[in-house]
Amino acid sequence: MAINIAPKSLDTELSELMREVSTGKEQLPEFQRGWTWDNDRIRGIIASLSQGYPMGAIMRLEYGNENVRFKYRTIEGVTVTGVTPEFLILDGQQRLTSMYRATCCKEPVETTTEKGKEIKRFYYLDIKKCLDESEDRVDAVIAVPSDRKIKTNFDRDVVLDLSTRELEFEHEMFPINIIFDSNAREDWADGYKEYHEYDKAFMEKYKQFRTQVIDTIVGYKLPVITLGKETPREAVCKVFENVNTGGVPLTVFELVTATFATYDFDLRKDWIECRDKIRGKGETLNTDVMEGVDETSFLTAITLYTTYLSDKMTTSKKKDVLALNFEDYKKNRDILLEGYKMARKFLFQQYVFRKRDLPYTTQLIPLSAICAVIRTATFNLPSTQKILAKWFWCGIMGEMYGGANETRYATDIEDVVADIQGKDSQNRTINAAYFSATRLLSLQTRNSAAYKGIMALVYREQCRDFMQGITMDIVKSMDESPDIHHIFPEAYCKKMGLDKSKWNSIVNKTPLLPASNRQIGGDAPSVYSGNIMKKAEIDEVELRFRIESHLVNYDYLIADDFDHYFIARAKAILKVIEAAMGKTIADKGSEQTIKEYGCSLEDNAN
Length: 606
Description:
By secondary structure, the protein is α+β, with helices and mostly antiparallel strands. It contains 28 helices and 14 strands. The strands form four sheets. A six-stranded mixed sheet has the order 1-12-3-5-2-4. Strands 6, 7, 8 and 11 form a four-stranded antiparallel sheet that branches. A two-stranded antiparallel ribbon has the order 9-10. α5 crosses α6 (182-195), α14 runs parallel beside α16 (406-420) and α15 packs antiparallel against α16. It is elongated. The chain starts with 7 loop residues before the first strand and ends in a 9-residue tail after the last helix. The mean pLDDT is 91.
């Protein structure tokens, strides 16, 4: 029988909610962010309360579900300790905390100005302004410093002093922090009337204030939506995604952190240690290539690895990450870290050295999990490297990781591990990958994975810098900072009226060091080639060697023959892509390719 997890909604008096907050019956999950409302927002919510305006529902989770175990804490300002809550506030923390601190605490509210300056304030209702219909109600909510004196002229002049009960009576300022204490409220009313010698006008004024304002606040009700104990973690996470109004949605990592906290385990602290290991902190080869791996990616990879080893379906969807068992995390953490270490090494072998050059950070999730399964000895085998590389490049050139990837992660680990182990494999990512010859023309910026992938493949061909003649290894890549530049310079192409869709495409781009780019300038290749030979003190044989290492036809280049150069380089790039993917690009001679390039890109075509 399916469990009904529909929430229950009940209008609840604010006074009752405040009592539940003060006794610890209502608390917060530990992962909830701190209270942040400033002075103006607190004044605004008091004004709304005093007029009975609706302010939205409070959502809470019934505490006690073994499947949703969260560490908890009291709302700021509550002094009770050691109390197990009955409910955890999921939505409404800022409102409840603001109301509790302003209406129930005897200490000043520690808040901030609109500009973020820390201040302490008590709040009052100006009786006269509350009863004046021409006054904006928020202007009737008076915030005073902790000494209850408002001062001007660099604190030399006191313009409002409420430091004694008599002064409150004199200025007709009702302290909002006694509003839910009936005895204190009656004592204040008696004192007010006595101070004004039971004058009928003041008696009538207070009566109106009580019925129009105090009774409105005391009798205020707001809807409280309660999720039952049986609510699953996935639903709790979804609630936060839907109701969060603070601008920063709750992450899966924060929910798992809260769950693990019940085992006295600080997942956030542990992640920092894991992050440093993943990024290779302290190792000789210092690179930022793994900096895109965040805490949620890490948990996703552990979940993928864990479910692959289990009897369950291999998966890494959000609900599965939320269900990650603490014992599984502890058992598999270090193994996965070794997987990330191997993944980092693999990237270097594919000539991906920097974060900016990594086609897909998401592809590291299945890559690290696959490496964790096969372990180091198998990883180092040439046959394994060949299988991994084919899968890696098919995923990149097929642009397979740009959307929702959880299903692909699962098929990747199943297929690639099976292939490495010599078992039957569906190789779904490899088989689905497709690269079109015409795609080269649309690769105009480094934003796409295929663009970054092609540049890595050019690196992998041992391309040499025009000026220095060096190839890019990890050390040189990080120290020298090569970047992507036009081979036929932009200024020259514009001057000659060449087709921008061609000269600005990846076919006319290559990785070079800054000094080479400066020598190229805006000159024709026939000009800058001579400048490079002179400046670098090399002959034409060496220059030809360096330029051709970039998959460029040297003769077409120095003849300034853009059209033939362009076709020759497009063919060379496609050939390298085919070798990396281990499959033929089928449309090199298609009608569309001939239309866009002006000729076929088949190897035997002119």
